[in-house]
Write a structure and sequence with these properties.
It is a single chain. The chain is of the alpha+beta class. The chain has 11 helices and 13 strands. The protein folds into 3 domains: about 90 residues, DNA Primase, Chain A, CATH 3.90.580; about 90 residues, no CATH class; about 120 residues, Dna Topoisomerase Vi A Subunit, Chain: A, domain 2 (3-Layer(aba) Sandwich). Strands 4, 5, 6, 7, 8 and 9 form a 6-stranded antiparallel sheet that branches. β7 and β8 form a beta hairpin. The protein starts with a helix and ends with a helix.
Length: about 325
């Protein structure tokens, strides 16, 4: 049994109701709605939690999807699944946060940088070309879009203070989405071909980090998309500014949105065409109605990267060109 599976086994045996109370810092009543911890300024109780027959605790935000304790941590922290498991393990091991004395909902501040990552670059090679060419991305587009080809990366965490190394292989190439350089380098390591989805991303990025923002060009339209790959592809495909947040399910605060608006002529949003993507897009547009929503419906594709991959299909190319006209109108 691997380390992640061992941690999940401990979590499965723990009192997940008490874990969720510790995470939110408030005493919960089963199925009683409270103000959502996932959306700032929620004026009406719209979030509740309950324990299923299988013993697992689940939650639902009426403006979003439902999920388990892992999904809640991912939404709160803007982190990936592996990082959510690590935090849930801390809670299961006794690292609980006491409820606020006032009894009001309080999300305790926690450091969001879960790892120190040192990434060592390498040259673009044939395996990179094989993977990225279907998305119209070559070494020039990757460099302009802050995608780093990585030979190896050293990761140091609180759980692994001695650190460990992740290496590039032709069968499992390694990349890093770059957020900031200097004193604190922040990356999201990306292994798109890893056989376990939970291990495809390792990140030390912060909730407020916006991928693609540093590459914005003034007086160009901008588009918000659901992920870093979609942003890289959109930037090239539609010749516009493109950005993504740490999580498609995250509702950005006003400072984040204004930072984007100040750097582009107008702003669009195009999240995945599945149910979750459309729900998350609708939440952002409801909060920020000056963002123009875009959409498409096609059985072969659900996001901008899919559009580029299937551009040889005439009906897909029609969608690409229609969106291009809307962005540059």
């Amino acid at each position: 049994m691997g380390k992640l599976q061992e941690m999940m086994a401990v979590i499965a045996q723990a009192d997940q109701w008490r874990m969720m109370e510790g995470l939110l810092g408030i005493e919960l009543v089963p199925s009683k709605a409270i103000r959502s911890p996932l959306r700032q300024g929620d004026e009406h109780p719209s979030f509740n939690a309950w324990k299923g027959k299988d013993g697992k605790v689940r939650w639902k935000d009426f403006a979003m999807e439902n999920g388990d304790i892992y999904h809640l941590i991912m939404e709160l922290r803007g982190c990936n699944f592996r990082q959510a498991v690590a935090e849930a393990y801390d809670l299961a091991s006794g690292g609980l946060v006491k409820p606020a004395p006032s009894g009001k909902l309080y999300i305790p501040p926690r450091p969001h940088v879960y790892a120190h990552i040192t990434a060592y670059g390498r040259d673009w090679d044939e395996c990179d070309q094989r993977y990225w060419s279907k998305y119209g991305i070559g070494p020039k587009e990757a460099k302009e879009g802050a995608l780093m080809t990585v030979g190896s990366a050293r990761v140091v965490t609180g759980k692994r203070p001695d650190g460990y190394t992740i290496r590039h292989f032709d069968s499992s190439p390694l990349y890093a989405w770059w957020f900031q350089d200097g004193i604190e380098a922040r990356y999201k390591l990306y292994r798109p071909l890893h056989h376990e989805r939970a291990f495809r991303f390792i990140s030390n990025s912060k909730r407020e980090d916006i991928y693609g923002l540093k590459q914005f060009q003034k007086n160009k339209p901008g588009i918000l998309v659901g992920g870093q790959k979609d942003a890289l592809v959109s930037r090239h495909m539609w010749e516009c500014n493109a950005a993504s947040f740490n999580s498609e399910g995250m509702l950005p605060d006003e400072n984040m949105v204004m930072a984007i608006m100040m750097r582009c002529s107008k702003l669009f949003i195009l999240y995945d065409s599945d149910k979750a993507g459309r729900t998350n897009q609708a939440r952002i547009v409801q909060q920020y109605p000056f963002i123009t929503p875009l959409s498409f419906d096609h059985p072969l594709v659900k996001d901008p990267a899919d559009l580029m991959e299937h551009r040889s299909d005439g009906s897909v190319m029609d969608i690409i060109e229609k969106i291009r006209r809307e962005i540059h109108r």
